[in-house]
């Protein structure tokens, strides 16, 4: 009775407090992965596609690909029907295509929060942050080697970012942790500081096994056995070389039914021909060989057709981004991936600039829009990339993450239902009026337009009075606000303890190595 009376009193008197709490509470909203309602942009006609596909088969059959320091892979290929000479594997016409038929056209990557699981493939686009930089940069600390604390901050920012669907993998390379142990800390951060999907380690097959075992603690062994809970990046050493480290990681993940992005690393003019058609031929040959090998390991293992594409400055040798050639290759690779009925990975917030400046903005905008229109299903490096991928920048991370909302808006396409036609509004306002107060505007203004969380649209006088802050300054303030309001997502205490114990035991079992 007393408890019921107390509850009634709280119900009557707590409305104001509840409303105040709601206004001040930290809300972490994550948009669902993008489902495109717009057409893909296609640059290759049927003749061009057939030529590229025929030439790729010629590359595989007559030139071949190398599987280095991996006798088991060579024997698997021999058993599958390929011609093996030394470390060179020549794949007869049609064999790779036949093998990849078992690869799924789409798959679900499960997050520990089921509401944040993603479907990769089809008309979907999943956005993940920058991957791999050894350096970080921010306004206060400048450019420096990344630390584990930097890594944790990026994971928190990714968790707090509305338009990011995925926590990513090596968001930066924490150089203050031994090489042979840092993957444990990085995975632990993704698993505990965020509840979005994440990526596994690929720098050694044993580290891939650690990734699977940590997932078995987080999700349960039975669940991991039957479901995909990781997506990992397997780079091909272009041109046409598959090394034992990446292939060893691929073998671990494919056997465990965990997804791999099979991705050539293309710098046109250095690792591939300078022509668009020539590069697409090599990309297709490499992807066919890599995905076919994954299906030899385990038919039905989830894979993604990857293409990291950039061109080169022939004067300096530096990679260039946001260029028309890279765009044409990315569009064409999307067409090739769809013809193989495979999910597609490419594009990102690519730029070669040293700072989040105008060059960075132009190149990033070109690259992000290219990714949307080319039909990409999984976009790694969607935010935070700077200096050709050498730097993960805190301010650019939130600037890019803000712009990912534009991709969501574009992908929705144009609604033309009765509400969208707005005929009642047009009738109500009539000639010479305005729409600010009409019923249609009042009913839809909260959701009608994308809203930035970074840019300044205030009048000049207000902007000047507030310090004439540029975009980077505003982004630095947003980074600070997000980190100050971060709240760790709940995790079962027993699971958290088991993960911490696994990491501690693994790290104690081997001496530190920085090689």
Written description of the protein model:
With 515 residues, the protein is α/β, with parallel strands linked by helices. 47% of the residues lie in helices and 13% in strands. It has 20 helices and 19 strands. Strands 10, 12, 13, 14, 15 and 16 form a 6-stranded mixed β-sheet that branches. A 4-stranded mixed β-sheet has the order 3-4-2-11. The chain has a 4-stranded mixed β-sheet with strand order 9-8-19-18. A hairpin with a 4-residue loop joins strand 18 (385-386) and strand 19 (391-393). Helix 3 (46-63) packs across helix 11. The chain starts with a helix and ends in a 7-residue tail after the last helix.
Q: Helix proportion of residues, in percent?
A: 40-55%
Low-confidence stretches: 1-25
Radius of gyration: 25 Å
Beta strand %:
5-15%
Question: What is the strand tally?
Answer: 19
- Helix count from the secondary structure assignment: 20
Largest sheet: 6 strands, mixed
Coarse structural class: alpha/beta
How far apart, in Å, are the first and last alpha carbons?
68 Å
Give the mean pLDDT. 93
- Judging from the principal axes of the Cα atoms, what is the shape? globular
């Amino acid at each position: 009775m007393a408890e019921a009376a107390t509850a009634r009193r709280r119900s009557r008197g707590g409305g104001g407090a509840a409303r105040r709490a709601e206004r001040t509470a930290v809300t972490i909203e994550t948009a669902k992965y993008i489902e495109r309602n717009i057409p893909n942009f296609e640059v290759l006609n049927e003749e061009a596609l057939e030529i590229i596909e025929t030439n790729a088969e010629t590359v595989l059959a007559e030139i071949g690909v190398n599987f280095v320091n991996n006798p088991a892979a060579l024997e698997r290929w021999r058993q599958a029907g390929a011609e093996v000479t030394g470390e060179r594997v020549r794949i007869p016409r049609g064999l790779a295509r036949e093998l990849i038929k078992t690869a799924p056209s789409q798959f679900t990557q499960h997050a520990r929060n089921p509401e944040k699981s993603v479907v990769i493939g089809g008309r979907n686009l999943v956005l993940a942050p920058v991957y791999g930089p050894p350096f970080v940069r921010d306004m206060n600390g400048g450019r420096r080697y990344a630390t584990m604390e930097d890594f944790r901050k990026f994971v928190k920012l990714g968790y707090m970012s509305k338009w990011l669907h995925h926590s990513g993998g090596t968001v930066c390379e924490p150089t203050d942790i031994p090489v042979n142990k840092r993957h444990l800390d990085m995975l632990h951060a993704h698993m505990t500081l965020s509840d979005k999907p994440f990526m596994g380690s690929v720098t050694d097959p044993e580290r891939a096994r650690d990734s699977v075992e940590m997932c078995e603690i987080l999700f349960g062994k039975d669940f991991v056995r039957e479901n995909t809970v990781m997506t990992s990046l397997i780079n091909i050493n272009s041109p046409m070389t598959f090394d034992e480290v990446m292939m060893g990681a691929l073998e671990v993940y494919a056997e465990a039914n965990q997804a791999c992005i099979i991705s050539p690393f293309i710098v046109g003019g250095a690792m591939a021909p300078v022509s668009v058609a020539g590069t697409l031929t090599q990309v297709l040959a490499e992807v066919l060989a890599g995905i076919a090998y994954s299906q030899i390991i385990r038919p039905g293992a989830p894979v993604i057709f990857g293409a990291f594409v950039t061109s080169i400055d022939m004067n300096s040798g530096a990679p260039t981004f946001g260029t028309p050639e890279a765009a044409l290759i990315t569009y064409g690779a999307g067409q090739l991936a769809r013809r193989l009925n495979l999910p597609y990975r490419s594009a990102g917030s690519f730029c070669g600039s040293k700072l989040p400046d105008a060059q960075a903005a132009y190149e990033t905008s070109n690259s992000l829009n290219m990714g949307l229109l080319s039909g990409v299903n999984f976009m790694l490096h969607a935010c935070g990339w700077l200096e050709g991928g050498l730097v993960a920048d805190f301010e650019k991370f939130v600037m890019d993450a803000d712009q990912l909302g534009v991709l969501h808006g574009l992908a929705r396409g144009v609604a033309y239902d009765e509400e969208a036609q707005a005929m009642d509004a047009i009738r109500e306002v009539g000639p010479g009026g305005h729409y600010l107060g009409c019923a249609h505007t009042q009913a839809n203004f909260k959701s009608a337009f994308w809203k930035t969380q970074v840019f300044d649209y205030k009048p000049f006088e207000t902007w000047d009075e507030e310090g004439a802050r540029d975009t980077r300054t505003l982004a630095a303030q947003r980074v600070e606000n997000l980190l100050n309001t971060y709240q760790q997502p709940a995790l079962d205490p027993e699971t958290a303890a088991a993960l911490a114990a696994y990491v501690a035991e693994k790290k104690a079992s081997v001496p530190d190595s920085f090689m």
